[in-house]
Amino acid sequence: MQVEQVLSDLGLSEGEIRVYLALLKLGSVPVSRIKEETRLHRTTVYDFIEKLLNKGLIHYSVKGHMKHFNATHPKRLLDFLREKQDRVNDILPELINLNTGNQEEVAVEVYQGTEGLKTCLFEHLKTGNEVLGFGIDEALYKKALPVVMEQLPRLLKENNVKERILTKTDPGYLVDSKQTSYKFVSSEFFSPLSTTVFGNNVEIAVWEPSLTTILIRNKQLADAYKKHFNNLWNQEIMTYHGIKEVKWVFDSIVDSLGKGQSFKVFGIPLQSDVFADYFDEVAFRMDKKGIVSKLLIDERAKRSIKAWSKYPTISIRTQKKEFVTPAEVDIYNPALTVC
To answer: What's the rounded Cα separation, in Å, for the pair 262 and 64?
Structure first.
C-alpha cells in the first residue's frame, strides 16, 4: 500500500504529508530547507508545520536563534491513531442515541468494493452467535481479503462465533478453524451469490461484474433464510454430477474414515476400469490409513480388480455379470453412496 495513501487515510492533508515525509528524510532542518525540499510556498509550509506540531508528529529545537524542525518517531502515528479512536469512543454514545430514531428506516445497506465486504464481515463477529452461509466460495473471500481471512480463525474464537457453511465440492480454499463446519453441494446447485445470515441480518455478496455487498436488516427475512439454510444443511440425500464431483466424493470418503473403520462396496461395474488408475490411488490411501475394505466387483473389470487387490487391508470377491447390481453402492460410517 502507498505510504501517502495510508497517511491520507489517517487524516493528513497532501501538504502535511509532503512536509512530514520531507522531515523524516532530512532530519532536523530550518523552514528554508523544508521549502526547498517540498517546493511549497514558505507561508504554506508554516501552516502545515503548525498542524503537524498540533498532531504531535513533528517537533522543533532552537539552534543559533533559528528553529529547526524534525519528525517524531514514526511509531507516534500509532499513538495518533489511538487518540482519534479515543475521541470517537467519547462521542459514540451520543451518536448511537441520535441514530436510534432512524434505525428502522435503514432496512438495506449497499457497500462497494473490498472495504465494504470487510465492514460486513466484521459485523458477523459482533453477533457472538452463529453465522450461516450458503453459496460461499472461500477462495473469493481469500482473494478479496487475504489478511482478514488469515486472521479469521482467531477472530471467530475470540468472539465466540461459530460458522456453518455450505460450499461447493472441490473448493479452492477452506478456513482452518474448529469454529467453522462445512458441508458440500454439487456445483450444479451452487449459487454465484454468497449469502450469509447472522442475527437479524442477511448479507449478499455479488462478485461480478464488480464486488457489491448488500446488507439487509430484517428479522423476518433473516428467520426465513435460517429456516431455508437448515433445510439444506439437514437433508440426508445429496446429489453430485460428473466425473470431477464423483472423484471428490471418493476423496471425501477416504478423508472421513480412520484406522480400523470399514468401507464396503457391492456392484462395482465393468465401467470402473476406465478409472482404474484413479482407484489405484484411492486404494493406496485407504490401505495406508488402515481402512478395512470389502469389495464385490464384476469379474470382467480386470483393471479395477488389479488396482484394488494390491493392498492387504482390501478384500475382493468377484461376481458374474448376471449377479452385478445395476448401481454401485458404497457403505461407510453412517453414510451410503449410490453411483
So the answer is: 88
Alpha helices by DSSP H, listed for the chain, are 3-9, 14-26, 31-38, 42-55, 76-100, 113-125, 138-144, 146-158, 219-234, 242-256, 276-289, 302-308
Amino acid at 255: D
Please determine, looking at this structure, whether the domain spanning 1-103 carries the CATH number 3.40.50.1370.
no
CATH assignment of 106-234? Answer: 3.30.870.10
pLDDT digits (tens, 9 = 90+) for 132-177: 998 899 999 999 999 999 999 999 999 999 999 998 887 888 898 8
Which residues 6+ apart lie within 8 Å of 141 measured at CB? Answer: 117, 121, 149, 194
d(CA 286, CA 69): 71
- Convert 76-123 into a string of H (helix), E (strand) and C (coil): HHHHHHHHHHHHHHHHHHHHHHHHHCCHHHCCEEEEEHHHHHHHHHHH
Longest pairwise C-alpha distance within the chain: 108
Mean pLDDT of the 228-234 span: 86
Mean pLDDT of the chain: 85
Domain extents in the chain = 1-103, 106-234, 242-338
**Sign of the dihedral through C-alpha 12, 16, 18, 23:** negative
Q: What is the DSSP pairing of strand 108-112 with strand 329-332?
A: unpaired
d(CA 325, CA 298): 9
Supply the pTM of this predicted model. 0.52
